[in-house]
Amino acid sequence: MEPEVRLDHNHKLSLKEFPYIIQWRDDRCKRCGRCTAVCPMFAIEPTVVVKREVVSEGPVPTPKEVRRLETVIRQSTDINRYCTGCATCSLVCPNEAIEPHYNPQHKFLFHKNRGGYPYRRGGRRNDPSPSTLDRLKFTRISMLTDPALDAGRHEFRIRTYLGRILPAEELPIKLVNGKATLDTSSDKFIPPVREIYPVMIGSMSIGALSPYMWEGLAMGITYLNEVEGMPVVMCSGEGGMPPRLLKSRFIKYFIIQIASGYFGWDEIIRAIPHMVEDPCAIEIKYGQGAKPGDGGLLMAHKVLKLIAEIRGVPMGVDLPSPPTHQTKYSIEESVAKMIQSMYMAWGFRVPVYPKISGTRTAKAVLNNLVRNPYAAALCIDGEDGGTGAAYNVSMDKMGHPIASNIRECYLELVKQGKQNEIPLIAAGGIGKTGNLAANAAALFMLGASAVAIGKYIMQAAAGCFGDEYNRCNVCNIGRCPRGITTQDPKLYRRLDPEKVAERVVEVFKALDVELRKIFAPMGRSTELPIGMSDGISADDPGIAERLQISYAC
Question: Does the reported pTM lie above 0.85?
């Protein structure tokens, strides 16, 4: 007789459908309950099972059946409570009795779209293949000195400029008694320029990050500037900033971002008359590389009281930013109007630049900026960047790699003789495999004047669990087990902002040493090797041809 299959059971999922399967060892577990208490997805739960045993006792052993109750840990097969593989359960288990294992045969992508809504997630794309940047090597080595000693022997000045740099013949300078002085009679506009460290912390909003994480990053860059003498800056991301910070002297270490949602800009505008320092720069966000065309999105799970107050919105509502500035008819008009209005707001003292997604139309935006005397820079965000919330299909199937985009934009500037005027800022997947210094140096040699990092600093400073195998990556729904991307006090109190700040300082100091090790053999100790493409080679002829660099195998 065939066993009966109930219809409700037939439509349930098995554990084999899920990306991570929990391995629980009964013999090690002491039933303390820590693992089920800390699981951010409620993917595991304590339950009771009935076990049947056959025992034989007495002088004439007669087999008999005994049933007893046992407490066990069970993994949920509810699609809304799937295990993300964050392994927080393993972190708190005193006996190493539980651990998630990646299931390469999973069919999660077939079942994820429940309720008729496309799957949204945070973190990085699912493609674990190495990026173009990891295929590049530095092949120009000086034979006149010992490269192993140069990094420690030379005086280094690893700095870059943020702001439009006028050619010498256009500067309002005159000679007086053989000395160059500023011509105060000239009415020519001199663009503001900032000297910064060439690796900055990219745009991650207070809303996307938890209060403790944001505080830790802010303390870290302040220490780097005021104690270590490294002018590292951080972009605020969309959504405004705390008024107390806007009115403090620390605002000079921040790049304030305005985006198409205009969230938090009422508070910023009101704070301008009370600012004791100017911000480092203003970034106008038109696109994000990890989700081009989607705009920004802060999901309702993270719009709690603090965020609602800063952004001037109700609590518990989704906050999507339109993919373009809805008050503008074209990118040219938008860039021109927004850049000029932001310059006017700060009395033409603060550099203003746009941020766009990596795209084949990046050169069109760049050519528009070349003709705009107020454009301070161009930030291009490549496809490998992390994101707080995006449709899975956008993250995996849309975007443009940053290496070729930066290269073609730099070569366009070279054709026009403007390569030293408008800095290019590269972002998106830098340090994706941990090689931050090597990736940054390669982008400098391809033409970038600065690079921005986001997910790397989250992984390095706070121990983010997310990876390219879709591990964790629940940044969007506010259930971050580390407390990095959540507004839930129960979760973000797991994070120590002072430890985050300490790690930020350590990361940048180590980065500085590695950059010196790369630049010293090339004879570059006082200036960045921007556009020095003869110093790098690719191990793939197609990549070498596309980037117009040498092929080495």
Answer: yes
